[in-house]
UniProtKB/TrEMBL annotation, chain A:
Protein's membrane topology: Multi-pass membrane protein
Any Pfam family hit: BPD_transp_2
UniProt name for this protein: Branched-chain amino acid ABC transporter permease
Natural source organism: Paractinoplanes aksuensis
InterPro entries with a match to the protein in the record: ABC_transp_permease (IPR001851), BCAA_transport_permease (IPR052157)
Transmembrane annotation, as ranges: 12-29, 36-54, 60-82, 94-114, 142-159, 180-208, 261-278
Domain of life: Bacteria
Location(s) in or outside the cell: Cell membrane
Major location category of this protein: membrane
UniProt similarity note: Belongs to the binding-protein-dependent transport system permease family. LivHM subfamily.
TrEMBL record, chain B:
Keywords: Cell membrane, Membrane, Transmembrane, Transmembrane helix
Cellular compartment(s): Cell membrane
Protein name, per record: Branched-chain amino acid ABC transporter permease
Residues annotated as transmembrane: 21-41, 47-65, 72-90, 96-119, 126-145, 171-190, 221-242, 248-267, 274-291, 303-326
InterPro entries: ABC_transp_permease, LivM-like
Matching Pfam families: BPD_transp_2
Organism listed in the record: Paractinoplanes aksuensis
Keyword Ion transport: no
Membrane-protein topology: Multi-pass membrane protein
CDD domains: TM_PBP1_LivM_like
Amino acid sequence: MDRFLFLTFDGLSRGAVYAAFALALVLIWRATRIVNFAQGAMAVATAYVAYSVADATGSYWLGFIVALVAGLLIGAGVERVVMRFVDHSSPLNGVVVALGLVLIIQGVLGMIYGNEFRPAPAPFSRDAFNIGGVALLSRYDLFVFAAVGAVVVLLTLLFTRTPTGLRMRAAAFAPDVSRLLGVPVGGMLTLGWALAAAVGSLAGMLVIPTELGLHPTAMDIVFISAFTAAVLGGLDSPIGAVLGGLIVGLLLSYISGYLGATVAPMAVLALLVVVLLSRPDGLFSRSKARTA
Amino acid sequence: MTVVRDRVATRIASPPMRRRFSPLLVVMIGAAIVVALTYTLPPFRTYQLATVGAYLCVTAGLTVLTGLNGQLSLGHGALMATGAYTLALWQNKFNLLVVGIIVAILVTTAVGAVIGLAAARLRGPYLAGLTLAVAVVVPSITSTFDETFNSDQGLSVMLNPPPESMTNEQWQAWVCWGGALITVLALALLTRGRFGRDMRAVRDDETAARLAGISVARTQVAAFVVSAACAGLAGALFAVIAQSVSPGAFPLTLSLFLLMAIVIGGLGRLTGALIGAVLLVALPAVAHEIGEAAGSQRLEGNLALTFFGVVLVVVMLAAPGGLASLRPFKKKGHR
């Protein structure tokens, strides 16, 4: 029972990260109907920048802020320079371009930093507190919950309470009408990509210290998990992405806890196959998501 | 209008370019060229030639899948791993190369059928996501069952020495190109007939294809299975060339390289697959030389990676209409 509780909290902590990452995928999907397959590589790139800054200045938090800013910049840059010019006649075009970006980013990172794992220390202790003799949560887990919770709240406020959020939603759902009404649709797309990439960077900063460390391919398996979470939530629904992330996190935690960590990747694949074949519209989606 | 006319033309008239040469003749000329090359090139070049042959198997299969049938697969690196590991396990037990290669193809075909059954129900980013997951996850299976697959170290492949009259490189080139030419011949014959027409019809318009009495799902699964068999053969040939298999030889980037090769080679033509296969060997070799000249180890592999990525993005953005415009027989003035 103790172990079950520990695995549950561990899974929720992992799941929070997947939720944030899935949220970033959903933001871009809603705005542009592109699944950003380069999200993982972009997040790793900002994490590298962050740890370089942290190493140079000795301050993790300065690096953390730099990661978020770098995320905004790389997201806006990718949208402005590349994604804007992708032909939308086939959904595969965006996918292939994003995969090209993955190769570029991983190649450049490898050239600058090398292809070995680099240490990525966590800002808080990852040792779990004992509550009533049961190891449940670490300070780091609390930090993860707080960070992801803040992101979810801020995004909700942005999209439901501010004029900019309204414009972003309008630009995503009816670009032509929005343009007629004076909404700068292109700018809103850039903003959406920037925000999504920043959220992805946050998720990367949160997950990399809990894995093997910094590596150009460090986020590959995280991307798969988050993609599964996003599909589980319907790919169109932010709430679904958050719930999907938590479900995937819990499942992976139980599976690695009871069956061994090496089984976890296969479990992700199996879950993705089951979801895609049985509920391709996701568990929570109201609208039809599988239009492409 | 032109799209419709082109589409009708694709479906009714068999493509004129295809009828010009008999595939058998082309393959025999190809075999003669390869044999001549193996006796003139230095050993390292012959080894590279063998690698081109192995790559050609998988790029030809992918060309059929993506170019002719419009399905994207990022999982073919993993399918190659399946073929390679099957061959390694077979060789270390029985040491019968020809049977081993056939078994590798059969096993990979079976795996491909499973993925293809799922893939036929998925479109666009969902299909890409699923096959991407396959590419990322399958190499990690070697750690899950490390008693069979020996984790990250991989397995060595037991092989009999080549016949005495030829060098090891020559023998590798003959084996790989034998496989490649048979693959190309089989695919050329397969796609020029009814199957090829069905695949193009499904690619261009699923609804119209269904109305014409074509089973869309069956065609898509069949295309996936055919290309999986090609990937299995390629994987087995790579195991023969390297005389070892390890998960590190089949990373996600391999699948992305394959995608790049067929996009640049021109989707849908088997000659494009050959161009792609040559690029897959030539570009890393050039990057290696540059890396050595610069004296930087980090540069070597990563330069090729970056270059492949840039080429992929530039080609996709420069081609108006993206992937579809890269296909032959859809361009105006092609006839």
